[in-house]
Amino acid sequence: MYPIGSIIQRPLKEMGVLSIFYKHVGIYIGVHLNDNKEEHQVIHFSPKKPSEPKSKAKIIKTSFDKFANGDVTNRAEPKRDKEVEVTIRAKPKNADHGRAICNEAEKIYCNPNEYNNEYNLFFKNCEDFAKYCYEYEVEYQNGHTETHTYPKKSQLRKTVEIAGGLAVAGVGILGLLKGGDDKENKQA
Question: Which of 40, 75, 142, 179 has the most CB atoms around it within 10 Å of its CB?
Answer without folding.
Answer: 40
